[in-house]
Write a structure and sequence with these properties.
With 322 residues, the chain is α/β, with parallel strands linked by helices. The chain has nine helices and eight strands. Strands 1, 2, 3, 4, 5, 6, 7 and 8 form an eight-stranded mixed sheet that branches. Helix 4 links the parallel strand 3 and strand 4.
Length: 322
């Protein structure tokens, strides 16, 4: 006859259930420690792989163009907004230009431009470096415009020996702007009072919630005029006698590619292949543009995901990150 399962523990020796409970607790602790060690090892391996991928990406990016030696046309792209931290920043463009000029196989350097403009500071740095590299390496620079070469982008293109456009490209916009909004009238209608405290008479310069001060407006206008004059000087120096200056040349107008040729802002019609084949006489094209490596993008995303996971886990456990 089978024993009653409810009575099985009655005949056990004294302390048997305590030992079993203790054994279970010890085994659970051991399993938890083993799992914790496995996760630590896993995350260490992941970080080692990630660091290795980043190192390899940096090394491959720095050495990718060094082996090119046969005759070719070097290309550096300037695309999108020109600004600090953007793809078309001096930080990215200048090293690419140096690599292109220093390669003995590069017969000339082509700036492939498709940009609405941006920072005059970044454009000025690139323009200055172009002129320095041209004098140092005695190589020609050609600008090839795709859709747009306006404002700061034309500031850079002006350093080229020749500028080629498509007949429908948008070229020019030689001017400077600073924009903003004023909300004083709206605040009055809403009954909102602006309470602003400053140390310095002009610390609230261009504050959108304060009435515009005429003296401050005049100061900003003089500053814009000064930057505009710098832009004009760069264009005149770059284009020389080819520029057909008139009252509209530096007014901020934009011209089509064909009109830009007529105005002396460009030299002819042509795309990248045409310039490489017919002008540079080196049909092979080598791109020196610095781009963010796919591995680095994935590494950044992975890092962000890991960080978010740690934050969520900490919050779930009641940990505050300050």
């Amino acid at each position: 006859m089978n024993e009653d399962p409810l009575n099985q523990g009655i005949n056990r020796p004294n302390g048997s259930w305590e030992r079993e409970t203790l054994e279970k607790l010890v085994l659970a602790t051991i399993r938890e420690q083993q799992a914790s060690r496995r996760w630590k090892i896993f995350f260490r391996l992941v970080w080692l792989v990630l660091i290795g991928a980043v190192v390899w990406m940096i090394y491959s990016a720095n050495t990718s163009s060094s082996s090119v030696s046969k005759p070719h046309t070097a290309v550096v792209e300037i695309k999108g907004e020109i600004g600090s931290g953007a793809e078309a920043s001096a930080e990215n463009v200048v090293p690419a230009l140096r690599s292109a000029f220093e390669d003995t196989g590069a017969q000339a350097v082509v700036l492939l431009i498709n940009s609405p403009g941006g920072s005059p500071v970044q454009a000025g740095i690139i323009n200055d470096e172009l002129n320095r590299l041209k004098g140092l390496h005695k190589k020609k620079v050609y600008a090839v415009v795709e859709e747009t070469c306006a404002s700061a982008a034309y500031y850079i293109a002006a350093a080229a020996d020749e500028i080629y456009v498509d007949k429908a490209s948008l070229v020019g916009s030689i001017g400077v702007l600073m924009d903003g909004f004023g909300f004083t009238g709206l605040m009055e209608k809403l009954g909102v009072e602006r309470r602003l405290m400053t140390a310095g008479a002009n610390k609230a310069l261009l504050d959108p919630f304060s009435p515009q001060d005429e003296a401050q407006r005049a100061y900003i206008q003089r500053m814009l005029d000064e930057i505009h004059a710098q832009f004009i000087e760069v264009v005149k120096k770059g284009r020389g006698t080819r520029l057909k200056e008139n009252t509209n040349t530096f007014s901020g107008l934009v011209w089509s590619g064909q009109q830009a040729i007529n105005e002396g802002l460009a030299d002819g019609l042509g795309n990248l292949d045409f310039v490489a084949r017919e002008v540079v006489k080196a049909e092979e094209i080598v791109d020196y543009t610095q781009r963010e490596n796919v591995g680095l993008r994935l590494a950044k995303r992975f890092g962000a995901s890991v960080g978010e996971g740690i934050f969520m886990a900490a919050r779930a456990a009641g940990v505050q990150l300050k």
